[in-house]
Amino acid sequence: MNEPRPGAAMALAGAAEPADLVAPAGVSPVVGAPVVGAPVVGAPVVVAVDDSATAFGAVAWAADEAAARGCGLVVLGAVDDLGVGAGRHPGGVLEHARGVARRRQPSLVVGVRRVDDEPVAGLLDVAEDARLLVLGAARGPGPSDLVGRTSCPVVVVLASPDGPVGPDGPVIAGVDGTTADTAVLAAAFGAAAAHDLPLTVVHAGHGPRPRVPDDVDDQLAAWSVPYPSVRVTADAVQEEPATALALRSSGAALVVVGGGRHGGVGTVGRALLTASACPLLFAATPLGGRERTGPGTADAAS
Fold first, then answer.
1. Which stretches make up the UspA domain (predicted)?
2. Which end of the chain is more exposed for a tag (fewer CB within 10 A), N or C?
3. Count of CB atoms within 10 A of residue 191's CB?
């Protein structure tokens, strides 16, 4: 891995038995889910774990996210030597992770899955059926292996399992006036709506009078139609993109960016992996999907 990885994750991959997504006995599932004992309907949040402290922080964050979005959670075994942590976690790492999720969200439907094969290929396969892929483990494939190759957003959680995983601050979205902004804004509006949080859209430029590109304003108006409850502000700042987003991550619930122009996390994303004070979401932007849509724009999210 080339980028700094304070909580980047990896996962065990390949074919596996279906996750046992069944609600805890005697507990009602989240709103909108089927009756107790029935499989969850809809794409789940998937969190990749190992036996590290950051992995269990990611499980707590993923449990909150799944509950807010009304879907199930799948805890995915992330390395082939999960037994290393069994002494610290009686019953095994996966069962400990399931317990973390259920203590965090007692009504959440939580399944576990362990797969056997090449890590990156297997995690990409699992991500095909996921709503979000959450990374927080310390060993194995990291964001650069996955961002730009998954059909769902990838979230990197840089947190300890102790205390709150993220504050109830705003969602911050970095835009750069390219076609990747559509995926960034879709993910940002969805996250803000799920948690009833405000959304701040940041465009970082280098001109004498920074301004939000007209097409971004148009997209904000369009996304406000399906998400009328989301309170949106847009800021144009004369700062380096990574600096602007890192400063605003303090007290934020989530920072949302796109991947690099040629895949991976990109220069801004790589900087934020060490500088962000909150979880970092990479929107599912297609490779090569960064054509300019307006003049005077800056590369704020790649």
1. 45-156
2. N
3. 25
